[in-house]
């Protein structure tokens, strides 16, 4: 009898732990991705600040450097740490899940996301030193990478082994094409606006 009560109590605690880990895992994901999306957007503005005249260029770059550091160190990296730590906690409540094939694939994409995170940190330091040659348009393309990873990771988490690969592949291809097209259209719109401005000032 006592053994049965102990098992029931342990099971309830395990369920509660799972819910807590899950809740903070989702919170960490939201914070992490929000930081990643905004960080690379700041890179876009930082790179385009080079097109400004002095003293505006120096003022803008100095401001973006401060914003990037704070965002990366205070929001984005803590979000990543919480996400990973809570994921470890989730696995500890259900260790058999490590045998699942879908989880291995998901972890591979998470590894790519971690690589992206630290690569952004490297770019941030290069921008600070004036060693980064990326253009604003290139950063806009880079900013779409976590979107693709987020879609894949979420689909794997929801569908698990039942993920329809054909439909998912076409979805990802369509998403990439749509993002590439939007970047090109924006670049064209921006170029036409600059040409119009230049012709009006001549």
From TrEMBL:
<dbReference type="GO" id="GO:0006782">
    <property type="term" value="P:protoporphyrinogen IX biosynthetic process"/>
</dbReference>
<keyword id="KW-1133">Transmembrane helix</keyword>
<keyword id="KW-0472">Membrane</keyword>
<keyword id="KW-1003">Cell membrane</keyword>
<comment type="subunit">
    <text>Homodimer.</text>
</comment>
<feature type="transmembrane region" description="Helical">
    <location>
        <begin position="20"/>
        <end position="44"/>
    </location>
</feature>
<feature type="transmembrane region" description="Helical">
    <location>
        <begin position="141"/>
        <end position="161"/>
    </location>
</feature>
<dbReference type="GO" id="GO:0070818">
    <property type="term" value="F:protoporphyrinogen oxidase activity"/>
</dbReference>
<dbReference type="GO" id="GO:0046872">
    <property type="term" value="F:metal ion binding"/>
</dbReference>
<keyword id="KW-0812">Transmembrane</keyword>
<comment type="similarity">
    <text>Belongs to the HemJ family.</text>
</comment>
<feature type="transmembrane region" description="Helical">
    <location>
        <begin position="71"/>
        <end position="91"/>
    </location>
</feature>
<dbReference type="InterPro" id="IPR005265">
    <property type="entry name" value="HemJ-like"/>
</dbReference>
<keyword id="KW-0479">Metal-binding</keyword>
<feature type="transmembrane region" description="Helical">
    <location>
        <begin position="167"/>
        <end position="187"/>
    </location>
</feature>
<comment type="pathway">
    <text>Porphyrin-containing compound metabolism; protoporphyrin-IX biosynthesis; protoporphyrin-IX from protoporphyrinogen-IX: step 1/1.</text>
</comment>
<comment type="function">
    <text>Catalyzes the oxidation of protoporphyrinogen IX to protoporphyrin IX.</text>
</comment>
<feature type="binding site" description="axial binding residue">
    <location>
        <position position="106"/>
    </location>
    <ligand>
        <name>heme</name>
    </ligand>
</feature>
<keyword id="KW-0408">Iron</keyword>
<dbReference type="GO" id="GO:0005886">
    <property type="term" value="C:plasma membrane"/>
</dbReference>
<feature type="binding site" description="axial binding residue">
    <location>
        <position position="25"/>
    </location>
    <ligand>
        <name>heme</name>
    </ligand>
</feature>
<keyword id="KW-0349">Heme</keyword>
<dbReference type="Pfam" id="PF03653">
    <property type="entry name" value="UPF0093"/>
</dbReference>
<protein>
    <recommendedName>
        <fullName>Protoporphyrinogen IX oxidase</fullName>
        <ecNumber>1.3.99.-</ecNumber>
    </recommendedName>
</protein>
<feature type="transmembrane region" description="Helical">
    <location>
        <begin position="103"/>
        <end position="120"/>
    </location>
</feature>
<keyword id="KW-0560">Oxidoreductase</keyword>
């Amino acid at each position: 009898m006592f053994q049965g009560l102990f098992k029931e109590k342990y099971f309830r605690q395990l369920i509660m732990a799972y819910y807590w880990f899950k809740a903070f895992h989702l919170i960490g994901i939201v914070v992490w991705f929000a930081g990643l999306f905004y960080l690379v957007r700041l890179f876009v503005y930082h790179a385009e600040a080079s097109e400004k005249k002095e003293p505006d260029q120096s003022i803008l770059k100095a401001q973006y450097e401060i914003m990037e550091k704070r965002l990366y160190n205070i929001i984005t990296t803590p979000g990543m740490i919480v996400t990973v730590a809570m994921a470890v906690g989730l696995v500890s409540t259900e260790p058999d899940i490590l045998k699942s094939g879908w989880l291995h694939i998901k972890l591979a994409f998470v590894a790519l996301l971690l690589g992206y995170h630290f690569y952004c940190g490297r770019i941030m330091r290069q921008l600070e030193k004036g060693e980064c040659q990326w253009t604003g348009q290139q950063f806009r393309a880079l900013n779409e990478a976590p979107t693709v990873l987020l879609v894949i990771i979420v689909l794997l988490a929801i569908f698990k082994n039942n993920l329809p690969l054909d439909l998912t592949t076409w979805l990802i291809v369509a998403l990439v094409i749509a993002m590439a097209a939007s970047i090109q259209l924006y670049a064209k719109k921006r170029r036409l606006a600059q040409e119009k401005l230049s012709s009006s000032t001549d």
